[in-house]
Structure to design on (270 residues):
């Protein structure tokens, strides 16, 4: 069951320094939830914390950390304990991307994608789930993507990381049936955030070529995600076109899809 806001309950939001994580943190704070905000850029987290405490009269704790560091889940759990906060909502949102041929990219970047989107999400779930189960109340939102419904050429690691997160969350959702804790995968299509500038390669050119109708704002996606989480949904895909795209991604022949995505990125490159 979705936890109600309480004095000591809090939502931990990863990647809260920008984009979707920032919007999800605001959406939860507006509903009265205390928040524990994490990402690497402390200045941005501090500014958001001040805004949320002022606007919504909630507690907003900032714990900067690098989620590719394996000690991050323990650091976050210790900070929550030190401030008497029970994490009853966990939002695994942090992520980074890269575009281009795998063989031409830095292996360190590819590994960071896996560590932040996959390993940290599993580790944080493992760290905070036992207490949620004990309280028989909690909710976990894992931010995947419509890229998780099929492999992508020129984006192999990012799409695979999202596929992992989607599959993991669907299995977990079912494992948790009847426990009072739920798990939801949020799978947005294109969202206007810094990710598109940071992903290098052809990302900016692909973004420039996408029609306006495909784009959603971080706030639209955050609302859909939080409402889906509250309703205990297994998967939330905001936007009709994205839902159709996800169906296509699951059922269209892989050889065709892969040729198509390779052609799109090649065209963006030229
Ligand atoms: N934008 C889209 O079109 C889109 C579509 C579908 C899914 N998504 C997913 O949505 C999630 C949020 O992305 P966004 O679009 O909001 O991009 P964004 O604005 O670039 O936000 C990414 C967040 O992840 C944090 N992060 C990155 N590496 C980190 C690390 N090593 N340790 C801790 N935090 C780290 C960043 O914070 P710091 O840099 O301060 O650490 C930032 O807060 C990602 O998982 C992404 O895959 C995005």
């Amino acid at each position: 069951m979705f936890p109600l806001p309480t004095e000591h309950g809090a939502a931990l939001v990863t990647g809260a320094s920008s984009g979707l994580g920032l919007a999800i943190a605001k959406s939860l704070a507006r509903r009265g939830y205390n928040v524990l905000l994490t990402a690497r850029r402390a200045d941005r987290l501090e500014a958001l914390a001040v805004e949320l405490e002022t606007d919504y009269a909630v507690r907003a704790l900032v714990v900067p950390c690098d989620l590719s560091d394996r000690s991050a889940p323990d650091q976050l759990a210790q900070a929550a304990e030190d401030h008497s906060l029970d994490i009853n909502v966990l939002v695994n949102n942090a992520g980074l991307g890269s575009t281009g041929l795998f063989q031409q990219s830095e292996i360190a970047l590819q590994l960071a994608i896996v560590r932040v989107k996959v390993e940290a999400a599993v580790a944080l779930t493992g760290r905070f789930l036992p207490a949620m189960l004990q309280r028989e109340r909690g909710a976990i939102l894992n931010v995947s993507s419509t890229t998780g419904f099929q492999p992508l050429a020129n984006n192999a690691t990012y799409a695979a990381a999202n596929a992992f997160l989607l599959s993991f969350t669907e299995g977990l959702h079912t494992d948790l049936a009847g426990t009072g804790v739920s798990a939801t995968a949020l799978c947005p299509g294109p969202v206007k955030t810094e990710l598109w500038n940071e992903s290098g390669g052809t990302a900016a050119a692909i973004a420039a070529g996408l029609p306006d109708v495909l784009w959603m704002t971080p706030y639209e996606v955050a609302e859909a995600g939080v409402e889906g989480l509250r309703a205990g949904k297994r998967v939330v895909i905001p936007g009709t076109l994205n839902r159709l795209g996800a169906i296509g991604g699951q059922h269209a022949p892989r050889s065709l899809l892969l040729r198509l995505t390779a052609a799109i990125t090649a065209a963006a490159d030229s």
